[in-house]
Amino acid sequence: MPVKIISPVTRLNGFWRLDVKIENHRVVDAFSGGIFFRGLEKILLGRDPRDAVYLTERICGICSTAHAMAASLALEDAFYIEPPRNGIIIRNLIFGADLLQNHIRHFYFLTVPDFAPGPDRPPFAPRYNSDFRLNSAQNREIYENYMESIHMSRAAHDMVTIFGGKIPHNHGILAGGASAPPSGDSVRMFLSLLSRVREFIEQKMVKDAETLAEVYDDYFKIGVGHKNIMAYGMFSHPDKKGEFYFKPGVIINGVREKLDRHSIEEHVKFSWYEEAPPLSPEEGSTQPDTDKPGAYSWVKAPRYKGLAMEVGPLARLIISGDYPESYGTMDRILARVYEARKVAELMEQWALELEIGKPVFTPYDMPSEAEGMGMVEAMRGGLGHWLRVGGGRISHYQVITPSAWDCSPRDDEGKRGPVEESLVGTPVEDPDQPVEVGRVARSFDPCLACAVHVIDARGKEKEIEILL
Amino acid sequence: MLTRREFLKLCLSSATLSLAGALLPRVAKALDENGEKVTVIWLELMTCTGDFLSFANTLRPDVEQLINDTIKLEYQNTLMAAEGEMALKHLYETAEREEGKYILVAEGTVPAKQNGIYGHIGYFEDGRPVTDLEAIKYFGARARYVIAIGTCASFGGPYAADPNPSGSLPVHKILKGVQVINTPGCPCHPDWFVGTLSHVMLYGVPELDAFGRPTMFYRHTIHDFCPRRQHFENSIFAKHPGDYGCLFKIGCKGPVTYTDCPTRLWNSAHLNWPVGANTPCIGCVSPDFPDAMSPFFAHLPDVHLPVVKAGSSLVGKLAIGGAAAGIAGHAAASFIKGRIQNHLVCGSETEHIDVATRKKLLEQEERASEATEGAGTEPLKATVADYGNGDSSKKPAGIRNRCREQGRDSEASEELVPDKVPAVMPKKLRIIRKIMSGRKP
Hints:
heterodimer; A: 468 residues; three-stranded antiparallel beta sheet; 40% helix; globular; B: 441 residues; five-stranded parallel beta sheet; 9% strand
């Protein structure tokens, strides 16, 4: 059976390798693997716990604010810190602005070239040349908006900078709250940029996404995965502790459940780690075993109550009741765009809720022994940080990223990860130009910079053996 | 056409004028000489892609102008339409066609352990991998210019931090004998990179400091031009992040960090910067960031390394020495910059500082600091180092004298809460200096 290796899967953050088996113009099996290893969790050991916020940001350039949020919440959980109301709002504004940046860049930079051919020059060429369906007017318009999106995503990042100091890797989100108190001056800059970005999302991006959805309506049926979704809750409510603007929750086989934060385990049967039963992230160990028979990935397989869960904007919107229960490729793309619209609208409201002159940061003392968990929604889905502090230093740090959920390998039961599952059944017109595979895979907004904890070329050779 | 002098003036007056904006038409013209746009190959190695996203925030010129009018961005993992083998083939074909003509932009550190198996840019369809190590060697050797963007590519950065699980090295350590222009920053400011790129296209290699950084951006310390400098002089210190005042006591690494954040601001729209957001500078443009620059919230020179355990074995001491050389070597290098710069000719081959050179620098610096000892005035407060005294060339010596003075009877502290941290950890530093100068501690 021919195996098609697609690597690098470009237009995403990080490096990815997809191995798909294609039979009779249809994907019959898929294997997903990240192809670099950094070991940031190891690097964190022995460091000042407060440094985790700025260091874990460096896991990922496009979702740095999400890691800052997760690390801050983990520290606040560990040290019993209550950030002030203003701090929560400013963090929501910083993260919200970065989310808008991510969603705009994901739609135009990463998604559009799969559906519409750009100008005939780099970086838009070379490209696959199959199944482009927009008419020339639509195509022209979408690339005009592509160019405008460059300015809009930059404006969104500039919004982060107003309260975060810089971006990527902002300084404004930290354990204890935020660091830049609001003023009339900063709020007017923020709102001015926001109104332009919001206008662009509402008038251009939503329209472009709907055009794609109309022309490529078969993609509502292509790329449907396990249909099990999960969200940790996004944007804390500043006045109601434990409540979120985007609700946490789980849907398994169409049944809604409350999220149980302690039902997460990592499976390693098909990953190059020493054989172990499924372990919770609080105790998960990472002992590589490159000769493990049957393993084909260095990404562990996180599972919720033993199930592979899809995370991301679609999961969030369905759980919050803002999107119908439909799980195709185009649903993911549309949900991301609609979510951007909703977040931009909410942000305008939040910015006006800031109280000038009130604190943004709660000073705190650090106990030398502590344990904490920070679970947030990153742009591409649920992100968790788990840490333990011993002797005033980090003694354990574990990160489970949204792309580890989505791009995970098979679990102990042999069940595929969400991307692998959703690829199965995808029609491929020309196996030499598998544009369809990229469309499905990228709709998850995978971020392999985040997902990959360990990878090893010896493992890679094995991957080939297994596949062939 | 701008002269070099005018160009540098533009770069230095960044706060009011975005340098690259004024240049764009000229750059385009310069490039048009052959009727061809300059080919740029952008390799993402082991990176978070933060530097590319920062580049995407460039304002004058913006990415639209750059990719449409100025450069041919033939390979860029995050932006390009091609994928898989098509992308890799295009990469190799471009390098062959444009050999000796293209500009290579390297983002990310190079995992070198076990022959580079920890990082790949992709796989051919026959399963043949292309490692980061292989890629940087191949494309680096064929480029006309190599620009390392970001601290990872320039110096190793966070992924090369202790214990460096992937054995990562900066680009210049892989490309021996090739001039690498380092534009560090975590991420690199859009202007630093686009300004350097513009300079390279217009005039060739810019003037570089001892660490291969263009001096038009990385010339002065953050402390030199910090708008809160007067708070430092007046001992008005922030007590925690979010508090207004000088952030030195809660960890600001501005005094040993050489770049123009305070006058340029972030991002390309020049709106704010970390100190402006009431948080400490963490020294992200420095060699040995983050090890020598952390803990981020404990103040200088509380050098901490994760490998250092309570008992101080020789290994432990050596490890401290290695990392502390980041701060010490950095300061020393700047102190005798005059001398170093004698060997730096604009556009010429430069040597990066290796351990031996650092050792030499430290010895020289020690002699120099001994000579100036006693010349400085007494600092006003125990917690305020005397950075402000004397002329700027003596600052590092000032820091170090101060450390030595304070260290006479105090032990190194592991205290983490900023308000309670003793000012300095001089005993450790003395040991470090001795190790670095080759004597037994």
